[in-house]
Design goal:
two-stranded antiparallel ribbon, homodimer, alpha+beta, 56% helix, 597 residues, globular, 21 helices
Amino acid sequence: MTVYSAPIQDMRFVLDQVIGFDQEIATLPGYEESTPDLVDAVLEEAGKLAGEVLAPLNQVGDRQGSVLENGVVRTPDGFREAYQQFVEAGWNALPFDPDYGGQGLPYALSTAVTEMWNAANTSFALCPLLTQGAIEAVGSHGTQVLKDLYLGKLVSGEWTGTMNLTEPQAGSDVGALRTKAVKDGDHYKITGTKIFITWGEHDCAENIIHLVLARLPDAPPGTKGISLFLVPKVLVNPDGSLGPGNDVKCASLEHKLGIHASPTCVMSFGDDGGAIGYLIGEENNGMACMFTMMNSARINVGLMGLSTAERAWQQALDYAKQRVQSADIAGGREPVTIIQHPDVRRMLMTMKSQTEAMRALLYYIGGAMDTSRRHPDAEVRERAQGVVDLLTPVVKAWCTDTGCEITSIGIQVHGGMGFVEETGAAQHFRDARIHPIYEGTNGIQANDLLGRKLLRDGGANAKAFIAGMRELDNVLASANGQHLPVIRTTLIQAIGELDAATDWLLETGPKDIHLAASGAAHYLNLFGTVTAGWLMAKAALAADAGSREGNGDARFYEAKVTTARFFADQFLTRAAALRRIVTDGGETVMAMTEDQF
Amino acid sequence: MTVYSAPIQDMRFVLDQVIGFDQEIATLPGYEESTPDLVDAVLEEAGKLAGEVLAPLNQVGDRQGSVLENGVVRTPDGFREAYQQFVEAGWNALPFDPDYGGQGLPYALSTAVTEMWNAANTSFALCPLLTQGAIEAVGSHGTQVLKDLYLGKLVSGEWTGTMNLTEPQAGSDVGALRTKAVKDGDHYKITGTKIFITWGEHDCAENIIHLVLARLPDAPPGTKGISLFLVPKVLVNPDGSLGPGNDVKCASLEHKLGIHASPTCVMSFGDDGGAIGYLIGEENNGMACMFTMMNSARINVGLMGLSTAERAWQQALDYAKQRVQSADIAGGREPVTIIQHPDVRRMLMTMKSQTEAMRALLYYIGGAMDTSRRHPDAEVRERAQGVVDLLTPVVKAWCTDTGCEITSIGIQVHGGMGFVEETGAAQHFRDARIHPIYEGTNGIQANDLLGRKLLRDGGANAKAFIAGMRELDNVLASANGQHLPVIRTTLIQAIGELDAATDWLLETGPKDIHLAASGAAHYLNLFGTVTAGWLMAKAALAADAGSREGNGDARFYEAKVTTARFFADQFLTRAAALRRIVTDGGETVMAMTEDQF
């Protein structure tokens, strides 16, 4: 069995010294209770539940999977109990509105805690992730009646939520969906089939609140004719008690490459005349409501990339410290632990540096979300929202691609044992592979970055963000700790490449969108690499300062600076090549005719 | 069910126009029968068996897997019959010595045919791959008695072979093995346990010839004290008939991430007093004999990287041409096939160009093997052997890493369907993941390239090879077809980066082997990328010429040039970054102490 121990020291470091949690987040109105002591207590308690309860169920969940029997989905042994424990301890409520029973803690802190759930057991963690999306959609767009009836139970986690978008002919193209909604008094009757519904049916909660996209009879075609409905599995009486079952059922489960414990359902609505649903938001405005869920879900999927990478990293490191094989390459008779071998060390440093870079990126966007919601100054809120919007596709795609890479390296560190399922390294590799796909494939993210986030405002937001990163150069210029000058040179070069690629896309996009889009994925990769490298440079500066001031763990600080330098040396240096591929590499992407393939 | 259709047009193109099969290989002594007509017939017939018999068993094999019941390994439905068909048609004998029933055809041609078996059914193809290794070891180092008794049945494929190296404490470090051999008259008694033995036990052949590394009682420690033994599953009487069973059994099978149909066995030798084995080569000289098998096996594993990529590519292309989703990014109301979307096209071009680049590389090394064995001029033979030695680790590691990347892209092209096992894309991804591990991990290959292939001869061989690649510049200089000037500029830059990295390693290796080895994997990646890019440039030149001369399929030629340009634009351009990581990126790889992790 593989173990997981929450990396609280690094989490704390990123929160405190990279994103300025105490100074900038905990001081926001409504977050006053997030004192350092509370943060410590939250991280420690969450770490216990993750390490002691959820992590041991990860491999069991993979082996047993969730199974559908006579219309009922049975989750693997231990999942029901673990979910009860999770709910009873109040973890589901962490970031939500205290008016509905939430704890109102910052998203930045919630991000760290959610990282733990995902790392411990990514299949399990998907359930509250979907609930969170439902809470946000109902909270932002639902009527007061819906809020009063559903939010409390969703915030507590007693009921769980789902997102029902996909149909066989409507995947990335949500607008192609055909599920029907017909008005029937104060509610609607929903009929249709949805696929790929995560935790669409299960035995961990007494009710499941499906958020379903459907089309009214007279709706315009495409995404402009889509409405969002709340469709409970079990109908809810006005007094909040459970009524009869709704016309909703799980028709089948997918047999998947990974996340076996997470039931991926084909959901059938309205087989017996129509499932009862309640409109959320306006008719035909469902896409806007859905984006509320989708954007936070996208960031959360990026967080899964980090989390699975962290789990794979812990396991690989543990193996590399224990496995004795071959003498040192410089000579010697006795075999050594494989962590001593340069190529194994290179793999470990890659895992470590990329994982820490992802963490910095995700907590940073978590902090920006808090600022965008709570800061008293509207201009600051808007700027923070701009950062969230810009980085959402970057975080989703870059962290999930990187997560896949890291889990693959995790297998490689184990050698032959990595390919044997018993070891557990392979599960992370399989589980992680869904992340670049769901919540909008990474190709969709790249198009989103290019189209909605870059071209739509003529690059104003992106250019401002890049200029902001460039300001770190002054700080780095006055720092002279070990590795910092090299980090500075590498970072400033890389920012220059990102800037050049941005300018080229701004110029090319309006003239030739196919050519621009041919480089969109590389551009996103460049954007993620540079932003992560910028945050690693900030981390190095903070660690260097902490080390000089003698406040904290000197060995940890030293490792942090070394890791940031490694990231600069081995990843930021790729910026020039990525820029070149974006600006000069697209000519042949669309050149061949279909019959030439 | 996914289909496979052998890419005979591209195979033929690479053989004829990139590696000069007709002029340079088929003219070698002993290969005179390899006329164009024969080559066509071989490729066509092999393509039929691969596409019609082996490919349909691929998914069945994955689902059922091989199972161990009462000491007997049962292969999945259809495997026995397919193997009989394979043997009866004489496919196993293709490249081997006619004195023992082989067909004596060139390795370059055998490489193309083996690509088909691997692409159609990689689990199946592992069985003859291991047999081939056994044939080479017995053929090169066995006594005449052993050759007469075993080679005929191994060449025909009636008996299969295995390689027994690994033990729990002896993986990459073969020298740490403990299996014992004690002389007992004209044979030896073998006792010990071997793990990860591919096709170690199965029901497809009446005998299995295990090649086993073991240690004599008075042997020196490490690899200098290892001897190689032939240990048949069933003892063979002097007249060639089968005698009693040997003291060998399969103790268990591994439950693996992929290649489920290929039984990966724990083999137990000598539980009842000692398995009878026969010495191959000299006592304590087993490693040299084993390298005979291992080098060809390493190239064959590289070939698996290509093959699985080809299979994944065919499937992704087929899906991309059929799946209709979303309107064109430039506008329009109607949804289009996803091959029209720039980011999907980028993925497809990546798959296509990398797969074709791997094919060129593998057939090129196949041709070099033929030249090294058959050319009348000793100097030419030696030079060709130098190419084979140098490129063996490159082909093994670069093609398997690339193969994993391609199978992952294959999933991505399918979107959500790629994560569902039924689709079949996920199987390629799982199957391919073993390739960077077995036959020496890719880290071992990187060390081999650096230590044995580069530093040992002071770079003479590598520098000569690089100089040879550089000669293409003159040819490209006089070519002015579309894309060729850009390919030329990019290639010559990339060769320069490879040369610079080589010089740096030659200088640094003797002074600081840890620092040099820290960049070995990146150097290997650089070496593979540049060599593949050089061969793609050769392909572009040939296609450009063929197109001008009007001999052949003009659309195919045009696509070939476009694909080579794409490879230059998107992969050769990474050479500068890789060089920089090798020469400037290693400082922090070994910098942290173990307790800082």
